[in-house]
Amino acid sequence: MSAYPDIVSAIGHTPLVEIARMSPKPAVRLFAKLEMANPTGSVKDRVAKALIEDLEATGRLGPDSIILEPTSGNTGIALAMIARRKGYRVALVMPDNITAERRQMADLFGAEVIDSPGALGSNGAVALAKELAAADPRYVMPYQYGNEANPRVHETTTGPEILADCPEIDAFVAGLGTGGTLMGVARYLRRAKPGVRIYAAEPLPGDAVQGLRSLEEGFVPEIFDPGMLDGKYLVSNRDAVAALRELVLREGIFAGPSCGAILVAAVRVAAAMERGTIVTLFPDGGWKYLSAGAFTRDLDEMEADLEGGVSWW
Amino acid sequence: MSVVRIPPVLRANVGGSKQIEVAGSTVGELLEGLVAAHPGLRDQLFSADGELNRFVNVYVDGQDVRYLDGKATPVEPRDELVILPAMAGGA
What we know:
The complex is a heterodimer of chains A (313) and B (91).
Chain A: E1 16-18, E2 28-34, H1 44-57, E3 66-70, H2 74-86, E4 89-95, H3 100-108, E5 112-116, H4 121-135, E6 139-140, H5 149-165, E7 171-175, H6 180-192, E8 197-203, E9 231-235, H7 237-251, H8 257-271, E10 276-282, H9 303-309
Parallel strand pairs in A: 2-10, 3-4, 3-6, 4-5, 7-8, 7-10, 8-9
Antiparallel strand pairs in A: 1-2
Chain B: E1 2-5, E2 19-22, H1 27-37, H2 42-45, E3 56-60, E4 63-64, E5 80-85
Parallel strand pairs in B: 1-5
Antiparallel strand pairs in B: 1-2, 3-4, 3-5
């Protein structure tokens, strides 16, 4: 094997692992692409690299520029690491109910963290970042929710990796955040293996994080085309965290809460199939959720946190 | 009767209720029943052409009805209908 010239080059090429003990029936094989194997521990390394390369290619970064992005954690940490390596400044707008680990990682890579109200969820981070970017010309916002570089990197890397490792894929299940993973992988698979079905898992937001004044403040990411999906499953944080614990117990895989939600959706997809092969994508590992008790606390006792006290995705 | 869960952003239109029981055997019948009882919801839930507002997601048994049969999706009395605003996901 040859060595990578730097850490940024080591992004991607993550392992695909069978998780047979999580399948509800032996005739349906279940696999997980472990994006925790990326340098900062999440799928967002791919996206952040693509976003920064897009800024470079379009000449948007000047000597005074500060890369500004709304993020609940993973994209921000990945941007911060890559910017550290490349010598750019980064500021991240993050909901104030994220776990301490996410703030610590952003901080150690040298990013400035700007709080947005947790009660507004990621909507609040997006709105504040847009406001700040409009007010200060030094801010350059790659804007993962609306930047074509996000789905494109999944179309050119994640999708091909999946099909190369699992040509027998019948269905793909991933989480819906920006829609980047789902859109990009769906585009690639629809072209390379027509007939593969695409399913999304999305979190059921607690009342505490739905601080919208009207539906007009609702948000559909610009890069998200609902017509690319075959189904969408709503998963509570409680079910997601419970699934996460099962995953550690039965498969020895230490994953983040969104992986639990994706697993719950994948099991429902599997239950509706007679036989076949499902590939899921697990966005991150469990490290950044330890302080919130994701693996240890009694689920009844942590109800308020599951309902929105903590940002789990 | 099926339980319809009302998100915080729409509760002012229904006298503050978190959930409302409505009769009907499809998503469309339940939503029409809901709007009949609380007319202020019509402009919130539906666009001018009578389709679901793009900022509204409706789920039966945890599945987005846009990928089932839309308003024709059957609803059993034990099923829960969940209405949610479309919001930015974590990223």
